[in-house]
Structure formats: structure tokens, C-alpha cells
């Protein structure tokens, strides 16, 4: 199902470099800067009106943001968009203007993974408190967090 | 068993006679008055102990569980334990609370409750003060609690209490109007405000048979007056934590609890006096009849509390002003008409006429309601 | 005051004290009002303990008061995260004296399954004096009831003479931790 | 419900329905700006129960994660297990025997009934009933929890499902007990309806409150009863027809005027449909194996997979990235209630304080799953 | 119409109210007998649903995951546990610490010390599932509350687990097997 979508996308955006990744759940990898165009096209033209999940993954060489899109009318089969961002300055355009449901999910990915979303209405931490330093889900972050005085005595 | 009937009255005469032997007359009267006051206050404390226990057992039974049954035999001493704990609790006055108002409010809530007890006719001749403006006195005193609860809401400088206080003002004032109007129907039939004469007026037929609609309106607005069951917005636990008594702890909270439960019992007692014929009853002594009827109505109060959800504040107002007040006015008008038409023709035509009148009012309400619903549905379809 | 008189006087005084103690503790034991405050899964087992099958209203604890002012037992039922710890300690401070804390469930006792992670406090006894520990994840409602019975026995063992809350100089106010950049910091040794 | 601009200069107060509030279903906080009793703005604050589940997921092996999924949405632990276990089975291509599939469906549908009964009970608590409907719902839940305890060993945290089936077979006394409980369920649901559906006070409080039109619901990625009450026919059991849901016939209830009352009706109807599924599953359950022998040190192949199921609260999905080792490289939980809450500020504007409580009750959130 | 729905709701609660008294009378002798055997109400039974905990205790199912116990081999009276530590590795929170004794007791390894930290345990049963020697099982014991935690009241050592083993499975067969 996502094969034909990929074909139509390539016709629509000849100059962008789209890639089709095989695997249990086939995905389409998109560059960060033309993600917004592709997403708007998918939403308006191809009827992908439901954004199910926004996930951030911390690979050794890059950050990756994965979007799972579904169309409620046509039916099953997620369309998966994978966008990679650089390790030092992870920045991905925000899709809140297309799907308002992505608001909290993007804030959570920013809060736990540290990937900024350009154009997000109020990009703040959602699960941890404001003054917290560090993004816990990165591989270099220890699971116990940084020890503070209250923490050491008790454990 | 005539002896049992007015046991307490004979007792008071005997004490008065005993005192009059070696005290001047005025001193004996003074002591008698103090004695009745003390007896009323003791009666109030015993009632609250019994009601609190009864309420928790009955609501427990509604929910398929036992109420407190481990404290005394069947949990009787539950409120004694609560009282001991509450009196020995630390008394907190929040730092930024308005100290004077905060501490004054619980006292001001309890005082009117005890004042109303003076006028209730517990049995034949067993009334502390037989005022001839009995019902007016009750209405006047019960509106004092509004100010007291507003003081509590404002004094504790807490947003939730403030909301609770505002709600109490809106609710109690707008529910006094239908309460008084529906009670007027009864007073019109007896011709006097004094509760004792109202009860005597019902010796042949209780007023509930004459004015079932009047009773319904009175009952609904009385529940709202006491912040109970579907109208307990001022201390809505699920919305504004504990409403006006959020900041109160220990003894002060015990006062609020005392006032709340005794107010509920008094409202049930007044409803029994006005509409079910207070202590009128065939064989049992009068005071037993009074308590039977009062606790029957109190059971309905508990029943509503265990079942019904709460109204929203604007629906509450709408119910009072758009539904209860007009209905009470119509009921007053029709009852006045019926009373004058069957002036001297004895009992049977009066009962017949009032039942027919009530039937007509109810039919009118149903027709208007159905018409309004159809009209609303058309508007919705059109929109 | 010879020896015998002193002893006799002590005995007489004790008799008075013990009777007062007995009534005082009986009153407090049989009307412990828990605070309607739940954190996580253990809170749901607490609601089940209040529900019809294991009804703890039988012990006189029916009035689950939502405000800390009218509660005397703080049941810490669930995981105390670092973001929630200041609120829990402030609630404890707002409760009027003779107050008790019952740590319900592995998370409240020692952080449980989420022990040693960046956002969970390793047990509420880092910040609050805990009276009874009820282990389990979540403990069965009956285990919670057994915890209550243990708490009642403990209350019965207390006397007015040695109770800390009537002393003037005993400060039972727990310091409220502050959310620092790395985790919770007690106001005392805030090293930022 | 627009607010009339009055010349009277009124100040708005900000009210803190804080982490400790009787009707926020746990430690969820809403900062509400009030004008009198009407709500001008609402900002949800979460994270008070963030228990680092995803970081722990990366530290644990695949098997050790199963008890942690029970603690996500602690009211329906069986459906959390199912979502995680099916994701790993899709990753490692494990075949599940027939009888295990039927046992799983029976357990998940029982959980759905428990969840909807408790959700309605909690909604009525917030509307003001003095715990009575909640205690009737909990009574029914106790009977179903006895079944879970008989089969899996623990009332709430079942930890019953394994990759390739279930931990052990149903005990001998289970089927007759299940039949009698399922036979008694319709009577319970009818009684619940008699108590609540035509109750005028409940109707006034719930009808026309918190209206969520279909396109806004889809835009805000709402799922579950919240979405179906807005008239969108999207039930993942029908759309993906995962596991053996295609063998049962049940229909998906939809709402007509998208308000809190419709969410209540949709949940009641879904409970009846679950009873229908249970009856069919009890007849068709075959005999046979219930689990597949897996190596003690279980290493799924490399790759990433996303699997979602229709949990009672909405679309619960697990996104796993495996690098071939015993621990998942990335363990992401797509939590339905966390995303359903995005629409809360939109729904509550212009309503009263009492309505916010009703709307939050109708969205039916559980903080273990919201904050993960 | 106005009021009928409320009356229907009220009738439901009244029915519950009356049924509690009916069920009390029907089961009068049993309900208040000192050792009233509380049993789980049949789904169709109505009325009082309460199990009065300290006096009446619900009887646990064989598979109930309560506190842990160590079994001993009835013939040779040696604990079945060999201190291999697989259960410690399978525990997601790491609450079990096992140290294996050097010298074997007549040909079988024996744990020198075994500690189970109750305060952080999940009661998830992964350790019981993973034990290859069938030494570790659950007991129906759930009353474990204590007053203190500092002096190790919540950390159970080997002999306490063995004592429970004797109590709940004297012949070496735990409740789970008895049921099959």
C-alpha cells in the first residue's frame, strides 16, 4: 500500500531525495527541510488525516523522528515517515499546524530526547519540570540521573 | 395510655410545682426556662450523634456494605469517637486567613441552628416558645446561616472556599423564595403563622393531601436551603475540594458538621410539622409520631444523597427562578381560590377541590413541558 | 513526701492518666480519617479497600476528606516522583497534628519497580516520618486493612505524656524540598 | 457559549486544580483562568507520575518489560500486556497457538468491561453521586478480578501473557466461573442503565457539554470511545482486525451529538458488545497448547516494528527498535490518554468549573499511562 | 418526563438497600458466626458484598502470587535451592541477592546466604518462573506490613523463607502443583 504512495510522492516532488526502506513496516525517509511540504501534500491530497504517533530515536550517528500516519477513510497500513536530524543541533519542522494532535507528542520528544521543533506554538518541557538540565532518553544520560544530596543518602 | 401521651408536660409541671414551693415564682420560671434550653441543647447533641451514625449506616447499606460497626455495638459510639478526635485535634488558623472572620464563622453557623429548635412543636404542649409568628421566625433565622457560610468562605482566603461562599449566597437566597411561597399555601389554610396552630389545623387531614404540589416545592427548596443531596454545590467535593469548609480543621470543622446535620434534621422536622401533621397521630404518644415522621423525611434526604448527581450552578438558579417560583405562585393562587370557594362547606369539598386543582396544575405543567420540548426539537432541527 | 506517699501518688496519677489515655486513644483510633489522595496504582487498591467488598468504613475511616486540614492519616499510595515530592511534603505539613503516614506499596517504601531512576524518589521516608510500611505492588486491600490495624495498635500504645505534638519546642514541620536543575534539593543544603 | 463583554470591570482568577484533587483521576493538574465560574483558559500540566518507563524499557530485557506494562494503565493490565507481547511477536515472527489467542481475547474483553464500568463510575463521582455508581461498578470489577486472580495469580498486575501465548493454561474451575460471570453481566449493565441513563440531572449535566466535532477529533488524533462518540467509525479491532477479531461479529457504537452524554452511551454500548464477543469466544475456544517454547535468553532479530491494539482507552501502540541484543534499543509507548488530553483545553473553553470536571471524567484518563 | 428518570434511579438504590437486609436474614447464622467462612459471592447473588476482614478472610487461589518461600527436599532435608543466581538475574528490580557456599553438602550446591528485599519487590513471579530447580515458589501470605524499615525488617533471609516453605509445602509440593 505504501509503495504506490511512495510512487505518487516521487512524481509530486521530483527534486527531493525520497528513499523507500524495506522491512516489516516499510517507511519513507524524508529530508528535514522538505518534510512540511510532503506532509501537507499527504494530508490534503492523499487523505492521511490521522497522525498516530511521533517518536524520537537516538541512533549513534544521528537523531531520527518517526511519524506514523493513517487515513481513517481508506483503511489500514501505517505510512511511516522517517526524518533524521544532526547529532549536535537536532532541529525538525513542527507539524502542529497540519495535525494539532502532534502538539503534546512533539513537546514530549523535545523534553525527553532534546530534538527542537521549529514552528511549535509553545515548545516547553511537558513531563519534567522547567529548570531540569539534560534530556533523559539520550543514550549518554545515566538511568539514575545526576545524583543530588537527597538522592544519595537514601539509596 | 394517656399518661404516656404528655409525659414530658406533666414532668415539667411537677418540677415547676416542686421549685415553686421554696423559691419565689419568678425564680422558678427562670429555672424552668434554663432547664428547657439545656434540654433542647442536649436533645440536639444526641440527635446529631444518632443522625451521623444513621447516615453512614444507611448510605453504606445503599452501597451493599456495612457502615461503621466496630466502634461500639453496631457502631453506635462512632460519633463519640469522632467528637473526641475532633476536639483534640490541633486548631489551625491559616497564616493569611482573616483571623476574626475565620474564627467567628463556625459559631455563627451553629447559633441559628439551635435558635430554630425553640419553635418546633415536639408534642402536644411540648414547645419551648409558642410564638405566634413561628414560621416567619424560622425563615428569618435560617437566612442567618447564609451570612455565616459566606463569612467562612471569605475568611479562609482560599480560592476554593471563596467559590463555595459565592455559591452559597446565590443558592440560599434564591431558594428561600419558593420555600416561603409554598409554605404560604399551608398558612393560608390555617390562618396563623404559629406552628402549634398549624399542627392543630391538621387534626382531621394532613395538608399533604390538600397540597401535594406545595409539599413537593417546599421539599425541593428546603433541601437546597440546607445544601444537601442534589444541591450540595457549596461543598461540592468533586469540584471545589470541600467548598467553604476547606480550611477548617478540628473543633471548628466539628461545628460545621454539627450545624449541617442538625439543619438537615430540622428541615425534615419542619416539613413534617407543616405538611404531615406534626404530632397528630392515632394511638402512639405525640412525640413518637413527630420523630417517626421527621425520620421518614430524613430517610428520603439520605436516599437522595446516596443516588443523585449534583446540579450545576446556573441550572440550580434556573430551576429556582424559572420553575419553582412560578409554580409556587400558581399553587398559591389556586389554593387561595379553593380555600375561599369552599369556605364553610366542611371538609370533603375542600379535599376534593384541592385534589382536582392540583391535578389541573400538574396537567398544565406536563402540557407546557411537552410543548416546550417539541418546540426546542424543531429549533434544533432547523439550526 | 516519704517514699510510700510518692509511690501512692504516682499510682493514683497513673490511674487517672491511663483512663484518660484509654479514652483519648480509643477516640483517635476509631475515627482515623485518611486523606483522599492517591498517586498511582496503589491508590486504586485503596479505593477498592474503601469499596463494598473490603469496606474500611467499618473501622470508622469512611470520611475520605479531600482537604489536608481535616485528615489525620496520609496514605502515600503510589510512586512519589521528584516533581510530586514537594507537593506531598507540603500536604503533610498542612495536616493538623496527631498525624500519621502510611507508606503503601513498594514505590512509596523504596521506589519499588522504578527504584534508582532519574525522576523517582527512593521511598517517601527520605522526606517524611513514616509510621507503617505496607509492602506489595500493589498490596491487596486486606493487606492495607492489616496495615490500618497495625496503625490502630500503634495509636493505642501512645500516651498524652510523651506525645510529641503537644510539646511546644518540638518542631514537626518537614522541610519542603525544592526542584533543582538536577533533582530535589532540601532547602537546608541547597548547593546551587 | 460565548462570554458577553460586560462593561463591569471583572478580574479573572487563576484556579489551580492541582496535582491533588478529588476528581482529576490521579496526579494531573490544570491551571484554569476563571471569569466568575466560566472558564477563560485551561492549561494542563502533567509529569507528576512520570516513572521513566521508556528508559527502564531500554535497561530491561524483553521478558522483564512485561511486568512494567501492567503498571502503565493500571486498570486494564491485560490489554497493555497484549499490545507489548504482540509487538514483540510481530518483531520476532512468533506463531501463537489457537487456544492462547482465544484466552487472550477473553481476558482483554473482560478488561474492557472493567475499564468502561470504572470510567462511568468515576464520571458519576465527578458529577456528584456520593460514590454509589462507582461502588456498584467496583462490585462487578471485583468479580472479574477474581477471574484474573484465578488464572494469572494477581488481581491487578496480571503479568499473564508471554511471547507466543500465555504463561499457563486456564485452571480447571475457570470456565464454569467465567460462564456464570458473563451470564450475569447483562443484568448488571441493565441495572447501571436504569440507574443513570434517564436520570434528568445527569442528562442536564452531560448533554450539550464538551462537544467535540468529528473533524476536530480526528485532527487532534483522539482515539477510542472519545473518537467514536464524535461519530467517526474507527475501531482498530475492525480496521486492523489483529489477532482473531475477524472471527467474532460485533458492531461499533457511534455517537450522534458528540457530547459527554454520548461518550457515556458509547461506553455502555461497548460493554454490551464485549459481552457478545465473550459469549462467542466461550463457545469457540478449542483445546490445545497455550505457549511456545522460547530460548531462555531471547534475542529477537534486528529491525523496528510498530504494533497497535484497541485498548479500552484508545489506540495503544508499542514502537520497538531492536539491535539484536537481549534489550530493546528503543521502547516507545503510544499512550492513548496522553494524546486524548491534547483536546482538553479546546473542549473546556467557555464552560463552567463543574463542566471541566465532567469533561475530564468523560475523557477517562489514567495517569500511569499519561505520564509513562 | 421530568422526574421519572430520577425515580427509576432511586428505585435501583432502594432495591440494593432492601436486598442487603434480605441477604443478612437469609444468611443470618453464617454471617455473624465468629469464624464466618467468607466466600466470594456467586455472580447472581445480591445483597451485602462485604467481607469483614480481620474475622472473615477470603481464601486465596492456588496461583496467588504472595510472599516467596524456599522448598526443602523432603528426603534429604537439604534446601532445593543451589544458589545458582538465575532468579537474581531474571528479577527486573534486582531484589534477590544469592551467595553460593563453597563446600557442597553431600554432592549438592547450597546457598550460603539468600536475601529477598521485600520493600522493592514487584511480586511479578519472574523469579519463580525462571528457577530451574523448582526451589522458589509463592505462598498465599500477603500480610507483611511492619513499623520500621531501617533495621532490615523488610529483608527476608534464607531461614525465614525455608520456614515458610515448611509451613506451606511440607512435602515439597507447592500449592500451584497441588491444583493441577
Structure description:
Chain A is 25% helix and 27% strand. Chain A has helices at 2-12, 35-44, 102-113, 149-154; strands at 19-21, 27-30, 50-58, 63-71, 75-85, 91-93, 116-118. In chain A, a hairpin with a 4-residue loop joins strand 3 (50-58) and strand 4 (63-71). The radius of gyration of chain A is 18 Å and the shape is globular. In chain B, helix 12 (250-275) packs across helix 13 and helix 14 runs antiparallel to helix 15 (347-382). The radius of gyration of chain B is 23 Å and the shape is globular. Chain B is built from 15 helices and no strands. The mean pLDDT of chain B is 88. In chain B, 73% of the residues lie in helices and 0% in strands. By secondary structure, chain D is an alpha+beta fold. Chain D is globular, with a radius of gyration of 21 Å. The two termini of chain D are 35 Å apart. A three-stranded antiparallel sheet of chain E has the order 2-3-5. Chain E has a two-stranded antiparallel sheet with strand order 1-4. Chain E is built from six helices and five strands; from the N terminus they run ααβαββαββαα. The chains are: A alpha/beta (155), B mainly alpha (383), C mainly alpha (192), D alpha+beta (372), E alpha+beta (180). The interface between D and E is large, with 43 and 33 residues.
Strand residue percentage of chain D = 5-15%
Radius of gyration of chain C: 19 Å
Largest interface: D-E, 43 and 33 residues
Round the Cα radius of gyration of chain D to an integer and report it: 21 Å
- Secondary structure: number of strands of chain C: 5
> Which runs of chain C of at least 5 residues are low in confidence (pLDDT < 50)?
none
**Name given to the CATH architecture of chain C:** 3-Layer(aba) Sandwich
The CATH topology name of chain C reads: Rossmann fold
Number of helices of chain C: 5
- In terms of quaternary structure, the protein is heteropentamer
**What separation lies between the terminal Cα atoms of chain C?**
61 Å
What is the makeup of the main sheet of chain C? 3 strands, parallel
- Overall pLDDT score of chain D: 90
Instruction: Give the CA-based shape of chain C.
Output: globular
Please, how many domains of chain C? 1
Q: What structural category do the secondary elements of chain C indicate? A: mainly alpha
Strand content of chain C: 5-15%
SSE order of chain C: HHEHEHEHEE
- Helix percentage range of chain C: 25-40%
How many runs of DSSP E, i.e. beta strands of chain D? 8
Amino acid at each position: 500500500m505504501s509503495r504506490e504512495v511512495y510512487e505518487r510522492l516521487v512524481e509530486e516532488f521530483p527534486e527531493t531525495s525520497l528513499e523507500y526502506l524495506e522491512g516489516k513496516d516499510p517507511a519513507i525517509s524524508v529530508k528535514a527541510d522538505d518534510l512540511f511540504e510532503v506532509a501537507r501534500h499527504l494530508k490534503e491530497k492523499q487523505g492521511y488525516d490521522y497522525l498516530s504517533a511521533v517518536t524520537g530515536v537516538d541512533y549513534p550517528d544521528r537523531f531520527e523522528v518517526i511519524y506514523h500516519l493513517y487515513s481513517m477513510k481508506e483503511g489500514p497500513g501505517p505510512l511511516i515517515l522517517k526524518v533524521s536530524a544532526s547529532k549536535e543541533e537536532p532541529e525538525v519542522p513542527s507539524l502542529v499546524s497540519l495535525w494539532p494532535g502532534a502538539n503534546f507528542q512533539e513537546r514530549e520528544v523535545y523534553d525527553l530526547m532534546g530534538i527542537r521543533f521549529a514552528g511549535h506554538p509553545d515548545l516547553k518541557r511537558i513531563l519534567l519540570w522547567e529548570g531540569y538540565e539534560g534530556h533523559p532518553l539520550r543514550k549518554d544520560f545515566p538511568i539514575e540521573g545526576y545524583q543530588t544530596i537527597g538522592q544519595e543518602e537514601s539509596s | 395510655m394517656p399518661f404516656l401521651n404528655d409525659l414530658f408536660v406533666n414532668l415539667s409541671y411537677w418540677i415547676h410545682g416542686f421549685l415553686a414551693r421554696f423559691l419565689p415564682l419568678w425564680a422558678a420560671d427562670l429555672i424552668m426556662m434554663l432547664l428547657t434550653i439545656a434540654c433542647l441543647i442536649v436533645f440536639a447533641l444526641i440527635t446529631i450523634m444518632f443522625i451521623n451514625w444513621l447516615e453512614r449506616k444507611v448510605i453504606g447499606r445503599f452501597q451493599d456494605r456495612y457502615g461503621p460497626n466496630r466502634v461500639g455495638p453496631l457502631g453506635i459510639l462512632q460519633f463519640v469517637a469522632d467528637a473526641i478526635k475532633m476536639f483534640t485535634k490541633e486548631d489551625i488558623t491559616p497564616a493569611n486567613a482573616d483571623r476574626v472572620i475565620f474564627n467567628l464563622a463556625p459559631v455563627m453557623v451553629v447559633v441559628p441552628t439551635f435558635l430554630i429548635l425553640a419553635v418546633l412543636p415536639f408534642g402536644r404542649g411540648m414547645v419551648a416558645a409558642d410564638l405566634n409568628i413561628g414560621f416567619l421566625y424560622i425563615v428569618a433565622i435560617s437566612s442567618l446561616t447564609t451570612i455565616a457560610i459566606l463569612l467562612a468562605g471569605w475568611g479562609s482566603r482560599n480560592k476554593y472556599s471563596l467559590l463555595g461562599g459565592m455559591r452559597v449566597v446565590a443558592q440560599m437566597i434564591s431558594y428561600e423564595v419558593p420555600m416561603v411561597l409554598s409554605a404560604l399555601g399551608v398558612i393560608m389554610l390555617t390562618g396563623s403563622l404559629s406552628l402549634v396552630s398549624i399542627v392543630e389545623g391538621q387534626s382531621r387531614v394532613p395538608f399533604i393531601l390538600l397540597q401535594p404540589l406545595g409539599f413537593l416545592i417546599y421539599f425541593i427548596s428546603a433541601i437546597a436551603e440546607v445544601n444537601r443531596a442534589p444541591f450540595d454545590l457549596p461543598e461540592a467535593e468533586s469540584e471545589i475540594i470541600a467548598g467553604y469548609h476547606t480550611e477548617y480543621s478540628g473543633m471548628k470543622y466539628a461545628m460545621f458538621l454539627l450545624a449541617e446535620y442538625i439543619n438537615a434534621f430540622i428541615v425534615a422536622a419542619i416539613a413534617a410539622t407543616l405538611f404531615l401533621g406534626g404530632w397528630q397521630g392515632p394511638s402512639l404518644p405525640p412525640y413518637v409520631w413527630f420523630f417517626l415522621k421527621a425520620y421518614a423525611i430524613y430517610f428520603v434526604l439520605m436516599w437522595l444523597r446516596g443516588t443523585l448527581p449534583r446540579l450545576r450552578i446556573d441550572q440550580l438558579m434556573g430551576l429556582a427562578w424559572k420553575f419553582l417560583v412560578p409554580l409556587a405562585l400558581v399553587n398559591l393562587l389556586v389554593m387561595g381560590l379553593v380555600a375561599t370557594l369552599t369556605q364553610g362547606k366542611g371538609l370533603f369539598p375542600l379535599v376534593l377541590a384541592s385534589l382536582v386543582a392540583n391535578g389541573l396544575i400538574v396537567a398544565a405543567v406536563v402540557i407546557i413541558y411537552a410543548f416546550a420540548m417539541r418546540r426546542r426539537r424543531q429549533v434544533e432541527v432547523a439550526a | 513526701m516519704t517514699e510510700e506517699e510518692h509511690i501512692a501518688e504516682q499510682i493514683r496519677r497513673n490511674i487517672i492518666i491511663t483512663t484518660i489515655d484509654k479514652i483519648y486513644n480509643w477516640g483517635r483510633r476509631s475515627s482515623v480519617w485518611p486523606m483522599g489522595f492517591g498517586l498511582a496504582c496503589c491508590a486504586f487498591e485503596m479505593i477498592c479497600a474503601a469499596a463494598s467488598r473490603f469496606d474500611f468504613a467499618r473501622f470508622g475511616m469512611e470520611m475520605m476528606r479531600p482537604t489536608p486540614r481535616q485528615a489525620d492519616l496520609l496514605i502515600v499510595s503510589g510512586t512519589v516522583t521528584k516533581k510530586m515530592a514537594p507537593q506531598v511534603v507540603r500536604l503533610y505539613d498542612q495536616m493538623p497534628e496527631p498525624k500519621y503516614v502510611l507508606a503503601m506499596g513498594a514505590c512509596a517504601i523504596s521506589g519499588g519497580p522504578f527504584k534508582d531512576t532519574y525522576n523517582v524518589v527512593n521511598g517517601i521516608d527520605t522526606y517524611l516520618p513514616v509510621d507503617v510500611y505496607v509492602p506489595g505492588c500493589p498490596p491487596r486491600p486486606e493487606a492495607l486493612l492489616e496495615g490500618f490495624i497495625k496503625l490502630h495498635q500503634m495509636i493505642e500504645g501512645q500516651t498524652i505524656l510523651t506525645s510529641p505534638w503537644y510539646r511546644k519546642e518540638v518542631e514537626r514541620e518537614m522541610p519542603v524540598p525544592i526542584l533543582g536543575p538536577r533533582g530535589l534539593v532540601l532547602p537546608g543544603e541547597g548547593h546551587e | 457559549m460565548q462570554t458577553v463583554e460586560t462593561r463591569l470591570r471583572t478580574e479573572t482568577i487563576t484556579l489551580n486544580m492541582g496535582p491533588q484533587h478529588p476528581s482529576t483521576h490521579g496526579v494531573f493538574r490544570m491551571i484554569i483562568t476563571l471569569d466568575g465560574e466560566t472558564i477563560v483558559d485551561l492549561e494542563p500540566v502533567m509529569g507528576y507520575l512520570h516513572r521513566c518507563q521508556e528508559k527502564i524499557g531500554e535497561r530491561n530485557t524483553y521478558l522483564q518489560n512485561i511486568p512494567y506494562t501492567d503498571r502503565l494503565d493500571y486498570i486494564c493490565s491485560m490489554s497493555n500486556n497484549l499490545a507489548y507481547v504482540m509487538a514483540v511477536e510481530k518483531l520476532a515472527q512468533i506463531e501463537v497457538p489457537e487456544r492462547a489467542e482465544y484466552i487472550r481475547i477473553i481476558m482483554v474483553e473482560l478488561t474492557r468491561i472493567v475499564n468502561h464500568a470504572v470510567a462511568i463510575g468515576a464520571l458519576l463521582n465527578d458529577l456528584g453521586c456520593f460514590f454509589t455508581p462507582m461502588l456498584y461498578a467496583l462490585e462487578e470489577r471485583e468479580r472479574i478480578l477474581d477471574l484474573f486472580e484465578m488464572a494469572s495469580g494477581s488481581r491487578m498486575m496480571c503479568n499473564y501473557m508471554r511471547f507466543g501465548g500465555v504463561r499457563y493454561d486456564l485452571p480447571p474451575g475457570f470456565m464454569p466461573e467465567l460462564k456464570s460471570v458473563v451470564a450475569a453481566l447483562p443484568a448488571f449493565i441493565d441495572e447501571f442503565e436504569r440507574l443513570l441513563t434517564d436520570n434528568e440531572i445527569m442528562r442536564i449535566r452531560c448533554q450539550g457539554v464538551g462537544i467535540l466535532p468529528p473533524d476536530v477529533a480526528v485532527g487532534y488524533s483522539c482515539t477510542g470511545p472519545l473518537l467514536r462518540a464524535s461519530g467517526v467509525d474507527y475501531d482498530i479491532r475492525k480496521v486492523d482486525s489483529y489477532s482473531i477479531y475477524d472471527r467474532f461479529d460485533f458492531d461499533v457504537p457511534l455517537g450522534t451529538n458528540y457530547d459527554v452524554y454520548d461518550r457515556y452511551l458509547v461506553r455502555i454500548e461497548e460493554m454490551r458488545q464485549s459481552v457478545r464477543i465473550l459469549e462467542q469466544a466461550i463457545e469457540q475456544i478449542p483445546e490445545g497448547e497455550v505457549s511456545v517454547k522460547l530460548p531462555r535468553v531471547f534475542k529477537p532479530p534486528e529491525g523496528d516494528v510498530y504494533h497497535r491494539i484497541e485498548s479500552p482507552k484508545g489506540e495503544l501502540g508499542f514502537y520497538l527498535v531492536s539491535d539484536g541484543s537481549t534489550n530493546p534499543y528503543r521502547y516507545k509507548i503510544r499512550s492513548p490518554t496522553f494524546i486524548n488530553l491534547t483536546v482538553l483545553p479546546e473542549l473546556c473553553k467557555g464552560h463552567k468549573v463543574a463542566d471541566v470536571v465532567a469533561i475530564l471524567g468523560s475523557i477517562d484518563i489514567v495517569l500511569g499511562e499519561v505520564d509513562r | 418526563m421530568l422526574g421519572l428518570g430520577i425515580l427509576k434511579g432511586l428505585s435501583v438504590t432502594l432495591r440494593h438497600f432492601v436486598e442487603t437486609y434480605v441477604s443478612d436474614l437469609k444468611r443470618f447464622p453464617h454471617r455473624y458466626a465468629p469464624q464466618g467462612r467468607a466466600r466470594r459471592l456467586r455472580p447472581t447473588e445480591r445483597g451485602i458484598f462485604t467481607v469483614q476482614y480481620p474475622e472473615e478472610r477470603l481464601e486465596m487461589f492456588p496461583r496467588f502470587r504472595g510472599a516467596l518461600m524456599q522448598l526443602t527436599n523432603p528426603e534429604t532435608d537439604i534446601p532445593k535451592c543451589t544458589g545458582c543466581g538465575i532468579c537474581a538475574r531474571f528479577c527486573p528490580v534486582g531484589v534477590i541477592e544469592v551467595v553460593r557456599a563453597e563446600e557442597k553438602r553431600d554432592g549438592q550446591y547450597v546457598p550460603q546466604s539468600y536475601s529477598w528485599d521485600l520493600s522493592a519487590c514487584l511480586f511479578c513471579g519472574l523469579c519463580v518462573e525462571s528457577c530451574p530447580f523448582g526451589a522458589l515458589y509463592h505462598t498465599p501470605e500477603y500480610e507483611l506490613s511492619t513499623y520500621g524499615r531501617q533495621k532490615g525488617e523488610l529483608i527476608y533471609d534464607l531461614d525465614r523463607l525455608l520456614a515458610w516453605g515448611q509451613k506451606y509445602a511440607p512435602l515439597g509440593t507447592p500449592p500451584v502443583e497441588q491444583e493441577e
